[in-house]
Write a structure and sequence with these properties.
Blueprint: H1 2-12, H2 25-34, E1 40-42, H3 48-55, E2 63-65, H4 78-87, E3 95-98, H5 101-110, E4 113-117, H6 120-123, E5 128-130, H7 138-148
Parallel strand pairs: 1-2, 3-4, 4-5
């Protein structure tokens, strides 16, 4: 059944196009790169690279960790730890954006700050919850995450 499901999914990839990139994602990635911030993708999917290629944004990522990269998957942090290692960033200095509860848990277990994309019921354990990246800026994210941080003594 899983092979059959994957075959349907792979066939559907033929219809993926640049306009399917979610609102705000490309402008935020561009802003991150302009600020000298590395961007990695962590996806449990073994189809992550073909999807990025079809979307036309593969070159926007400094590294990709996918279903072939690690053995343990979300909610284990291995995928995100692998992505951080590939770009030479300590998890405590990185932020994971995730739309699934298991992914938010993986980010937390890995020592990352987290942005949950979607309803609070699903991603509410994240440090910051957004409904989407539309209109989101680096300055806005940093301000929101700083507001969440406990005071240092």
């Amino acid at each position: 059944m899983m092979d059959r499901k994957n075959a349907y999914y792979v066939a559907m990839l033929d219809n993926v196009k640049r306009s399917d990139v979610l609102p705000g994602v490309q402008s935020l990635i561009d802003e991150l790169h302009s600020a000298g911030i590395k961007v990695a993708l962590g996806s449990a999917s073994k189809n992550a690279r073909p999807v990025l290629d079809r979307l036309g944004i593969a070159s926007a990522f400094d590294a990709v960790s996918d279903g072939y990269s690690v053995v343990a998957h979300k909610p284990e942090p291995d995928l995100f730890l692998d992505a951080a290692a590939k770009i030479g960033v300590d998890p405590s200095e990185a932020v994971v954006a995730e739309d699934a509860e298991a992914g938010v848990q993986a980010a937390i277990h890995g020592g990352f700050m987290s942005i949950g994309l979607g309803p609070v019921e699903r991603v509410g354990a994240a440090d910051l919850v957004l409904s989407s990246f539309a209109g989101t800026t680096l300055a806005g994210i940093l301000a929101s995450l700083d507001a969440q941080a406990p005071p240092e003594f």
